[in-house]
């Protein structure tokens, strides 16, 4: 069978390979999925919706009540002025990102995103016929992008800048002055901004700043997956100006039609009845972050302290690099993701602390036993 040439530019996700390799007894620090159950209010609302026959297609944009609640959430948290016409309900933030990139990117145009960065961005760029372009960040700068470096990177062929704060895989949170400067450079250069904000509920030091605060043309992708432990419900949303939402809707109607009806009913309950749930996870994740970072440092590993999300990105270059360390840990039943999966930082390793305290302590124990031997062999 002959396949489209674009498929040669699409790679299998290193994260999914870790997920699929996980055995029943493995300590999995590779997958970015909260180890919490979906709130009872959400599950009850979905069951009731199904029992009441709410199992057909919904409006392509998503049900009106949910779009209203999503707009109100952002307006209340971040001072935006969204209405229902600014919201498109999607099948997770993954679809929201795909819709935005496909709507914005012409073949040959660049999609700029930070390195290290989430695995989807480069592949979504390739799927759209675009060219991935990395905006390098460094451990010394806390993996926060430098607006002046971004300005120097621009050549005039950019279709979109993708920002992700809090960041996967580094846990970095971009300060307000950085976000503002990045948006200003983009606006001055005519480059749209797409902000991936799926971890906005999980900021431990400082506050989350959405680029939409500084320009009403910004597109924002978010979801219920992380904030409400609803990864399998496939429920997300895209926020932006009505004309951009309309363009994305034109794609959405053919590739998805609508987000799952019962998931949308669950989303309404999440925002109406379970609004305190993300904060409870926040408290637990903060404690786990502190446990993990302390343990890494006791094991002699350098790690930028993550200020958000639920990932740590320690430097393991002195032990053969991320691929070597990840393989060694996997052999001892601890699953992690090498930094090479996220760009050019092969010397790092991504660890998710969306895992139980017991699993984190067990993983640190394995690291204490395995990693020193790797250093002696380098």
What attributes characterize this protein structure?
alpha/beta; 12 helices; single chain; 378 residues; Aspartate Aminotransferase, domain 2; 42% helix; seven-stranded mixed beta sheet; globular; 12 strands
Task: Write up what this structure looks like.
This protein is α/β, with parallel strands linked by helices. It folds into two domains: 5-37 and 277-377, Alpha-Beta Complex (Aspartate Aminotransferase, domain 1); 40-273, 3-Layer(aba) Sandwich (Aspartate Aminotransferase, domain 2), CATH 3.40.640.10. The chain is 42% helix and 13% strand. It contains twelve helices and twelve strands.
Q: How do you describe this structure in short?
A:
By secondary structure, this protein is an alpha/beta fold.
CATH architectural type of the largest domain: 3-Layer(aba) Sandwich
Average pLDDT value?
95
Beginning-to-end CA distance, first to last residue: 44 Å
- Biggest sheet: strands, sense, closure? 7 strands, mixed
Q: Report the uncertain regions.
A: none
Total E-strand runs: 12
Count of separate structural domains: 2
What is the CA-atom radius of gyration, in angstroms? 20 Å
CATH C-level label of the largest domain: Alpha Beta
Task: Find the structural class using helix and strand composition.
Answer: alpha/beta
């Amino acid at each position: 069978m002959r396949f489209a040439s674009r498929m040669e530019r699409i790679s299998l996700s290193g994260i999914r390979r870790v997920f699929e390799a996980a055995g029943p007894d493995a300590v999995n620090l590779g997958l970015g999925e909260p180890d919490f159950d979906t709130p009872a209010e959400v599950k009850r609302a979905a069951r009731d919706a199904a029992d009441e026959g709410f199992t057909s297609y919904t409006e392509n944009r998503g049900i009106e009540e949910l779009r209203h609640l999503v707009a109100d959430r952002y307006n209340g948290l971040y001072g935006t002025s969204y209405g229902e016409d600014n919201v498109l309900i999607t099948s997770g933030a993954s679809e929201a990102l795909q819709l935005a990139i496909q709507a914005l990117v012409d073949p040959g145009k660049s999609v700029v995103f930070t390195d290290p960065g989430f695995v989807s961005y480069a592949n979504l760029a390739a799927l759209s016929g675009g060219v991935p372009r990395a905006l390098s960040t460094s451990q010394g700068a806390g993996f926060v992008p430098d607006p002046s470096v971004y300005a120097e990177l621009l050549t005039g062929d950019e279709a979109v800048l993708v920002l992700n704060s809090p960041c996967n895989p580094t846990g970095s949170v971009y300060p307000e002055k950085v976000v503002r400067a990045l948006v200003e450079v983009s606006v001055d250069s005519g480059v749209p901004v797409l902000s991936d904000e799926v971890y906005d509920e999980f900021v431990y030091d400082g506050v989350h700043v959405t680029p939409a605060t500084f320009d009403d043309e910004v597109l924002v992708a978010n979801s219920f997956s992380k904030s409400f432990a609803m990864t399998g419900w496939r429920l997300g949303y895209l926020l932006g100006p009505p004309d951009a939402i309309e363009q994305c809707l034109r794609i959405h109607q053919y590739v998805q039609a609508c987000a799952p009806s019962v998931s949308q009913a669950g989303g309404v309950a999440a925002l109406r009845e379970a609004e305190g749930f993300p904060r409870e996870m926040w408290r637990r994740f903060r404690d786990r972050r502190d446990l993990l970072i302390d343990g890494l440092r006791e094991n002699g590993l350098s790690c930028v302290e993550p200020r958000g999300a639920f990932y740590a990105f320690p430097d393991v270059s002195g032990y053969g690099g991320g691929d070597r360390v990840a393989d060694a840990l996997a052999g001892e039943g601890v699953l992690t993701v090498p930094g090479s999966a996220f760009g050019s930082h092969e010397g790092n390793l991504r660890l998710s602390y969306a895992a139980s305290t017991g699993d984190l302590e067990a993983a640190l124990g394995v690291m204490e036993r395995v990693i020193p031997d790797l250093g002696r062999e380098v």
